Amino acid sequence: ALKKMKQPALEGVASHSQFADLPWKEWISKGLATGAIATAAGYILFPSESVSVGGIQLPSAAGIGLGVAGGSVVGDLTHQFIFPYIPHDAKYDKAEAAVVSIAASGLGSYAAGRLLIGDAPFLPLAGVGAGAYIAGDYTWHHFINKAEGGFML
Hints:
By secondary structure, the chain is mostly helical. It has five helices and two strands. Helix 3 crosses helix 5.
């Protein structure tokens, strides 16, 4: 019988199976939950603001939600692809991932606010992003992820 030999991986190049094995469903569903929460908070902060994007009138709150959702996914990708190359103590992995994701969501919110609203205040927008990430992460772990007691995915 022929033995199937493992193919050597190219150094520094991810294979298709490595990308398929990533927790995309978690990252995207957590990003959607985070973005939805940020959108709701954006409507409270900027109830009547809107902007035209490509001829489509978009509420500024929805743009802020998209920025926060993007920041959430960027934080997860950073933890997956950049942290392994930075020497650090493994016992801080979860704390580092949380700080980076919270900061990325806050910056995503601020960047979207600056693009959509213009002269937007940093702290309220970054606070919306950071708070939405914390609430979205809690929502994902406690209500969405079946493996952790949630009921959806």
